[in-house]
Amino acid sequence: MQLYPVGSARQKLLAHLASLHLATRQRVEEDRVAVLAARARGEHKADQLLTERRSQARIYATLNRIAAAEGEDIENPLAAIRKHGPHDLTEFEIAKILHRLERGYAREAYRPGSSVANVPDLTMLDGALIEEGALGENSVRSMCAGLATRRAEIESEAERLYTRALNAPEQPVAKGEPRISFDACEKAWMRPSCQMADRIARDDIRIAVTDQASADSQTCSAQALVLPPVVTVTVTELPRSGSRPVPAGSEVIDPDPPAQSAITIDQLVEDLIGTSTWGAKTAAQVRGVAHLFQRMAKSQLTSALNELNFVEYRQLLTRLPRHYGKSPRDFELDLDEVIETARRDKKPTGLSKQTINRHMTQIGAIYAFGSLRKLCQDWSKLIESRRPRISKKEKLKKPAFSDQEATQLLASPEWSPRAVLPEASLYWGVLLAAFTGARQAEIAGLKLADIDTDAVIIHIRENANRDVKTEAGERKVPIHSELLRLGFLRYVKTLKCKLKGDADLFPDLRARGAKTSHGALLAKSFDKVMFKSGVKKANPKLSFHSWRHAVNTKMAKVSDAIREQVVGHEGKTINTSVYMHNIAMPTLKEAIELVTWDTSHLMPLRWHLWEPPSPAAPRGPRQKRPAAIR
Is 593 helix (H, G, I), strand (E, B) or coil? Predict the structure, then answer.
């Protein structure tokens, strides 16, 4: 079976190996130059750098050779070193190799995405084909073994180059431009679409690296992976200056291929989103971050992903209005005008530390992906250093509703008997939060099918309205007896009779906004009530999420495992996260009944008379972030 059924996977793998090979030669040359510079300063100990790097190359070449030959599990590491390692390994090198083998280096070499062995991730190994079964587990292992062999050969080349630099530090590692040629094969892969000078499959079945001005050459024979054959092509290696050489030979490849830097940040972000497991909300946030960055840098090209622009972006976050992006006017004005307008109108500016940290995480992901694509440098250390430090005092939890605050809030007209029934989402949404501790989005996005009237439980799970936050977020929660007393099941049964199909539990939310999320609409209604009741004025930090804190606190008497299953938290210990399975519903019911509020003044309303409103008329998408960068 062919390991690379499609060209894209093969080309990505070959480009990965080629980049490792070229980076190795560049690293050796940079080390040689550093040694000469240190010598000029009188630091003769710098010569030790080449010796240490040569030893390091020997260590990793041996490790990858052992991994390729012995497989994932090595019973006798010392015997493997003697069998596959050079005969002149020093005691220090043997100790280092043993240390890494004993800690699972060989196993890491067989794990796609391993940073230890520099194995490409699943996207490079064509993860879609693996998921579909086109590439089985054995095929992937065979593929990784071949990659380990190639990696060992690259390290062996590094050892040779360091030895040469040790013998003659004054001479460049390669005089002129080294050339890489391929063996002649059939013409099935004559002109791959990505065969550009810096992405061509430079590291195919057999590689010959030759210095133009030197007779010293070495042929690196690679273990033959089952690859589609390629035509004879000679390519000049990309010089350090970044200019693109023209390939020699009869096959004329694109004479003026597009530069990598010509890709836009938006294209890079879409590629990043396509290879990630982010939900729609996170993907939208990353697109927003990218758009703001481009507005600040006044450029849409990935060449803007540099150190200076990142520092300016970080400074911008401390001056940006907190409600930036909520109004289309924010995108009509320049950023300086937006900031000045907010200052003049005395609106709060400067994002919170938590929001800035989110921006840092997401812009860091864009930079890291750009670095992987060789479109920018790796600025991860700089990005990490610019994160705002949140003190222990600032990390204090959000407040929980007290009994007095809950009583004051629930005394509002929205929960009192009245001629006109209140908003169902506000009435039941708040009560569900008060007696289940569920998240705002989990409650607002419930479907009628999520309420089991026979088992008297609420099934919180992913649906068309929203995802669940974590794996533990999908759960079943018993319905509190107070909700039953107030007629929650009667409300559900009424809707099931009046609405057909996959209907929402709170259709009034969708009637108010066809595009806005259910959770945002519920939060807007709840904030209005909190301000009217005076609760928000007395404690401005209270929010809908405060119910979740309060419910968790009221269940303090039960075990952590029970509380975590009720509120949908990931277990913090091995016992709860691994060995604890679904807890019986009667046990969860006992825990839920510990949550009590003063709701004796509330009376059941006539929900059987409630008519669900019609859905809001769909409207065209509003372009909040125009394509033009101002």
Answer: coil
Model confidence pLDDT, tens digit, residues 553-584: 999 888 888 888 888 887 766 556 655 667 88
* Percentage of the chain lying above the pLDDT 90 cut: 25
Name the strand (E) or helix (H) holding 587.
helix 585-592
Task: Please tell me the distance from the alpha carbon of residue 15 to that of residue 396, in angstroms, as a whole number.
Answer: 48
In eight-state DSSP terms, residue 349 is B
| Residue listed under structure tokens 């913090």 | 572
Number of residues that make up the chain: 630
SS3 assignment, position 460: strand
pLDDT tens-digit map of 43-102: 766 678 888 888 888 999 998 889 888 888 888 888 888 888 888 888 888 888 888 888
Helix (H, G, I), strand (E, B) or coil at 217: strand
226 or 454, greater pLDDT: 454
Integer Cα distance of 195 and 208 in angstroms: 19
| CA atoms of 431 and 473, how far apart (whole Å) | 19
pLDDT recorded at residue 467 = 80
> Please, what are the domains in the chain?
7-174 (no CATH), 265-385 (no CATH), 403-609 (1.10.443.10)
Which two tokens mark 552? 């968790």
Cα separation values, 6 from 13, 148, 217, 360, Å: 12, 22, 33, 36
How far is residue 390's CA from residue 77's CA, in Å, rounded to a whole number?
46
Residue 502 exposed, middle or buried by CB count within 10 Å (0-12, 13-18, 19+): exposed
CA–CA distance from 32 to each of 23, 37, 186, 249, 377 (Å)? Answer: 14, 9, 40, 33, 22
Question: 236's torsion region: left (phi>0), alpha (psi -120 to 50) or beta?
Answer: beta
pTM, full prediction: 0.52
